[in-house]
Amino acid sequence: MFKHFEDTGLIFAVINSYINKKTNKCVFKVTDNLRYPFTDFSAEAFNFKLDLPDFDPCPKIFIIAGDSKRVHLLKEIWEEKIKSFFNNICEQDHSLENFINETQRYQYVSSEVFLNLFIHHLVKDKKIKCPQRLMFEKDDAVILVLYGSKSYHSKEESLIESIINLWIDREQPHLKGYQCFTRSFILKSFIGRKILSALPDNEMGYWTLLLEGGWILPIDNSFEKFIRKVDSSYLGQWSIGEVEDIINNPVYSYGYLFEQQELFVEWQYVLLYALATLPITEFEYPIIEKLYVDFCEFIAMYISPCVEVKDRIIEKEKQLTVFMKSIFQIRSYLAGEEETGISKNVIFLLRSRYAYLPSIYRLLSKYYQKKVKERLNTVHFKEKKFRKLLNGVMSSSDTYNKGIKLEELADYFFRTIPGLIITGRRARKEREEVDLYCSNVSYESILWELGPLILVECKNKKRKVKVSEIRNLIPIMDSKGIKSAVVFSSSGFTKTALKEIEYQYFGGKYIIPFDMADIKCLTKSFTPFDLLVSKVEKMGKKYANDLRNAYF
Predict the structure, then answer these.
(1) Bridge partners for 147 per DSSP
(2) Rounded distance, CA 164 to CA 136, Å?
(3) pTM of this prediction?
(4) Average pLDDT over the chain, rounded to whole?
């Protein structure tokens, strides 16, 4: 049923909403595959509860948004699957239990997983709900809405319509090419970029912000439609972004002229990052050429309309040489090398476009299946080995050796976390010194809160880490577009250092402190992954409603 269906570019979302029947005030939380594309989607969507007086839960709403052709096809698949499922339930008592078990096993959100989750919702706790659907249109995007009601004659349709209209008004779902976007997804990749200037757009009649990386963000109610890269019309000369777009444009060598070239470029950036973080020393030219053509065909089919241009002005070999050079350029950047080209832009982009990784890894698996799996292979955490490393840190009296031992402990810590890989160690460059660089290739949305590249510092001095040492991390993080740093300290942190960490959080930077008390808590049942996630979640919960988020 789903075997030949490709859902790249579609939005899958679940809305949990509550309404105050006295005031008609409605509050809701949206879980979508743009922020939670991996296994934690169902936990975020199904475990949300709001404890507010006088507010009652509304029906859980399932949304599929995208291009008309695929959304209407999914509607037909949904109707067939619903009929088939309930027929099986009537005929086989054990099929419901088997279905629930199968629904819980997935790596990333797909159309099949999403519809299975909806059916699971219909029969949860063996209280059968009646499946209902509605269809909406927003400009050129089609929105399929699914929900369960107590009966086929329930009067909840107007309530569901009101909630969907609130979501549409807030998120403005729209198509670029064949891909569906929301406002929050678009804006997420701009978080952390510096505002360099404010520029008037005389043609459109509004002001714009020039952001780090050469992006123009309109100050307008329809900003999402007019975001673009700065170009020669502003600068009076070729910009770096324009040169990059020409270099990365396959029309000059392969004849693919994409209607949405900027979408091709950002998908290619994610592809380059995925290749740069695979455990492959050298890439074979024939394989890369086949992969590149497959990638272009994939984008043409599911992301952006494309026409073929017969005239070619660049040899294919030269285009692929630049492509392969970009892979190693990003790989070097992830290891600590300084570079002013595309790599920093890739780091900013991956703060939100990690949602593309499942599609990219499916494409890569055709040629590098073993390597794609190996990227998630980690060192199994062994408490005995960990204790030996910890004892080495604690027993060392020599400052230099203690520092080496602490770096080895930190290295082992991260190598046991699935999806985090060490890409640089003891990086000593002209402007900076960093103990470890750690790249993110995980299928855990909570780890992507840390961004694609994590800086790791080990402080082995007898005194506690001071505020100045925390502040010294900020220029390094800013220069490379890094959102998160992890600091290991053998002696702990001063109160002012912890206050600085808190202050930097409100500026969009995660600096996660680990002292020896934290490290000593690790066991085979509470691993480095559990400790890191608990730290991230604790920071998020602690400052979620803190007004300082608005006044940094």
Answers:
(1) 61, 132
(2) 9
(3) 0.91
(4) 88
Nearest-angstrom CA–CA distance, 117 and 100: 9
Beta-bridge partners for 134: 145
Query: What are the residues facing 290 on neighbouring strands?
Result: none
What are the two backbone dihedrals, phi and then psi, of residue 277, each rounded to the nearest 5 degrees? Answer: -100, 5
Burial 154-176 (b: 16+ CB within 10 A, else e): beeeebbeebbeebbeebbbbbb
Q: Which of 102, 115, 220, 117 is nearest to 172 (CA)?
A: 220
Distance CA 407, CA 437 (A): 12
Instruction: Give the CA count within 13 Å in the CB-facing half-sphere of 187.
Output: 11
Residue 538 tokens, joined:
């604790």
DSSP assigned state of 461: -
8 Å CB contact between 99 and 116 = yes
432: which 2 tokens? 């900076």
Across 45-49, 109-113, 342-346, 399-403, least confident range: 342-346
Q: Tell me whether strands 484-489 and 453-459 are parallel, antiparallel or unpaired.
A: parallel
Half-sphere exposure of 188 (CA within 13 A, CB side): 18
d(CA 383, CA 405): 16
Using alpha carbons, list the distances in angstroms from residue 482 to 191, 351, 440, 473, 485: 11, 10, 12, 10, 8
- Per-residue pLDDT, 547: 67
CB 333 within 8 A of CB 480: yes
Instruction: Give CA 540 to chain center in angstroms.
Output: 17
Task: For residue 173, give the amino acid letter.
Answer: P
- What CA–CA distance (Å, rounded) separates 361 from 274? 8
Residue 467, C-beta contacts closer than 8 angstroms, at least 6 positions apart: 494, 496, 497, 499, 500
CA 259, CA 241: separation in Å to the nearest integer? 18
Q: Which helix (H) or strand (E) holds 259?
A: none
% the chain with pLDDT above 70: 92
Is the CB of residue 277 less than 8 Å from the CB of residue 375? Answer: yes
The tens digit of pLDDT for each residue in 468-482 reads 999 999 999 988 889
CA distance 35 to 39: 12
What is the number of alpha carbons within 13 Å of residue 136 lying toward its C-beta?
A: 23
Q: ∠ CA 202-208-209 to the nearest 5 degrees?
A: 150
